[in-house]
Amino acid sequence: MNTLIFRTLAPFITALMLFFSLFVLLRGHNEPGGGFIGGLIAASAFAIYGMAFGVQAVSQALRFHPLSIAGAGLLLSVLSGMVSLAAGVPFMTGLWATPHILGVEVPVATVISFDVGVYLVVVGAITSIALSLGESED
């Protein structure tokens, strides 16, 4: 599947899928979606880019090793749970705060940081698997 049309459209499809994955991530705690589904969409976007341009192009686009991304996501998810322990409530209890930033109340929750962590774990793990499969083909 290395046609001129596919190579021309792949960057646009990848960008569109990455934006959609962020949309699904951010709406996930209020409606269907979240970190897992958003991460799968993002990993699929990198797979499409890899099919068009090769494994090396995806590795350069990510800038970090996919397992490092997964590790950072796991750390973020665990830290989100630890915040609740530090507050004296059960592990993984959602906590909210509303700091004032530039005169505007901005609600911040540990729920979204956990979802972002799951997103990064899924993107890193699935992309790592896809890149390993692509390397064995080459």
Can you tell me about this structure?
- The chain is mainly α and 138 residues long.
- 72% of the residues lie in helices and 6% in strands.
- It is built from five helices and four strands, in the order H-H-H-H-E-E-E-E-H.
- The chain has helices spanning 4-27, 35-53, 55-62, 66-86, 110-137, and strands spanning 96-97, 100-101, 104-105, 108-109.
- Strands 1-4 form a two-stranded antiparallel sheet.
- Strand 2 and strand 3 (104-105) form a beta hairpin.
- The longest helix has 28 residues, at 110-137.
- The chain is elongated and about 55 Å long.
- The relative contact order is 0.18.
- The model has no long low-confidence stretch (mean pLDDT 91).
Summarize the topology.
Blueprint: H1 4-27, H2 35-53, H3 55-62, H4 66-86, E1 96-97, E2 100-101, E3 104-105, E4 108-109, H5 110-137
Antiparallel strand pairs: 1-4, 2-3
Task: Based on the model shown, name its key terms.
two-stranded antiparallel sheet, mainly alpha, elongated, 138 residues, 5 helices, 4 strands
Tell me, rounded to a whole number, the average pLDDT.
91
Give the low-pLDDT segments: none
Largest sheet: 2 strands, antiparallel
| Fraction of residues in β-strands | 5-15%
What helical percentage do the residues reach?
over 70%
Give a summary of the structure in a few sentences.
The chain is mainly alpha-helical. It is built from 5 helices and 4 strands, in the order H-H-H-H-E-E-E-E-H. Strands 1-4 form a two-stranded antiparallel ribbon. A two-stranded antiparallel ribbon has the order 2-3.
